[in-house]
Known about the structure:
Blueprint: H1 7-11, H2 14-28, H3 35-38, H4 45-56, H5 62-65, H6 71-78
Helix pairs in contact: 2-4
Amino acid sequence: MKDIPTLYEWAGDMQTFELLFSRFYDKVLKDDLLAEVFENRSPEHVSHGAHFVAEVFGGPKLYSSEDGGSHAQMVGHHIGKMLTVVYL
């Protein structure tokens, strides 16, 4: 039986995730609505986000092993940020 690739494998590799997150945050910081939410992010925010999502998608466990985080910690970082759904 053929192995089914993970979402991480379908997407590419860690470089793909880091590029995706870098481009995403470049655009976010130029957006009138979102820039204020992310303007004070840490220098590691992009790589931590890329590592977290890559790990959730079946990639290497960089977020939990190198970035010192867990799923619960990631959620904890975002609780209280007053992030809500906006319907346009």
